[in-house]
Amino acid sequence: MGGANDSMPHFVLVPLMAPGHMIPMVDLGRLLAARGATVSLVTTPANAARIKPLVDGGAEAAGIPIRFVVFEFPCAEAGLPEGCENFDSLPSHNFSKPFFTAISLLREPLETFLREVHPRPSCMITDFCNWWTSEAARELKLPRFIFHGPCCFFILSSHNIYRHRAYDGVEDEFEPVVVPGLPQRIEVSRAQAPGWFAGWEEMQERVYKAEETAAGAVINTFHELEADYVERYAEATGKAVLPVGPLSLCNKDAASRAARGKASSVGEDEVSRWLDGMEPGSVLFVSFGSLVRTQPLQVIEIGRGLESSGRPFIWVIKEAERRCPEVEEWLSEGFEERTGARGMIVTGWAPQMVILSHPAVGGFVTHCGWNSMLESVSSGVPMITWPFFLDQFLNEKLVVEVLRIGVPVGVKIPYHYVGEGGVAVGRDAVEKAIVSLMEGGEEGEGRRTRAKEFGEKAGKAMAEGGSSYENLTLLIQFATEHTAGNDM
Prior knowledge:
Layout: E1 10-14, H1 19-34, E2 38-43, H2 45-56, E3 67-70, H3 75-78, H4 96-104, H5 107-116, E4 123-127, H6 133-140, E5 144-148, H7 152-163, E6 177-178, E7 187-188, H8 201-212, E8 216-219, H9 223-237, E9 240-243, H10 254-259, H11 268-276, E10 283-287, H12 296-309, E11 313-317, H13 319-322, H14 325-339, E12 343-347, H15 352-356, E13 361-366, H16 370-378, E14 383-385, H17 392-402, E15 406-408, H18 415-418, H19 427-438, H20 441-462, H21 467-484
């Protein structure tokens, strides 16, 4: 980079090409660049176009350059349809393994870049799923931190389940098993967790071996939220563990918050004006992230639960879900007319951070993806938890059983066990959870108080002198020292 100071650290970030992994990695890059580091972010043409608004709206506007290192994505070589450069663009989950194969094929161009770029990289930060980066780091004698997008509670639980072989001898995949090595009793079934590597034993082994060679872990959480789990994970791995989140809080202005994710299908001003007309804490926000595909009958049951609850709401429905004949027919029968001015349906993508940070929002129905949950925590908003797969069931247990800022809707099994056309939760359970969260008497008031307190702690963690700010300082110091001692 022209004019760069060779004494400053140069971080190379290698995210997993999936929204929930890529967006916080971009936020991390912005924070590092704002502190004076040189940052190169590895991506592909389609993904570069998607994340450019995140950078344009924040880092570049503040004069903080982040360099995109754009590699062609080897779709054809891995057996993927052209254009499938992100996990959420795959036609079906049957393409998951070819997708990870394609990502691993980026090793050669990455090594070439690392050898030739100036200033020389000081440190790599790579998604924990990108196990193949450990080989590149070893070849170039380059220190590497792994980046964990999920919460530390999930990471530690998965680590302990794997290391202690907690599921060995358990034939029923729905039988709850106690997670070893946690400060409290947490039970989870094989079907619920860890889930991501079910049938992926070879990749799982590679991921854990790659973790052993890392200098440490960077996690999108904050110490005050997960102190016990951060400390136990550091003990279990013998590595430095640096919570540096909530990374979403680097988006300080409305434009940056609105730019996270895809382009919104509704204007930020329109949403804000609608929320301005509602009572503080009265609105329920319903959104299930980018990867979840809700079955048509389940969409209808959610709507019926919202209607019978009598509560104001903003409900995000994906375009593919709304186009289903059953959903279109049901909506055409007068749902929007019956809910009137107290309901807003957003088709497509909504400016989630803008909505959650508005004082009118008092609850969030979430799929339990960690980015969404952490945004809710940062905004002091309690949650209704509706897990679907991957880390989401353990995320639910953290929020409901440990932090006590959530109400479970009652989902017990991953969505793919429900089957095509199935319903995991009916309208009555949806209504019951809404009433419990938004009213809930003394228990509900305690939940709201705890959520608000965690929101305040999140802001302090990211502010100068806070725990996450200081952990980022430690990361920069580590890379600076490596730069100073690097004679290559």
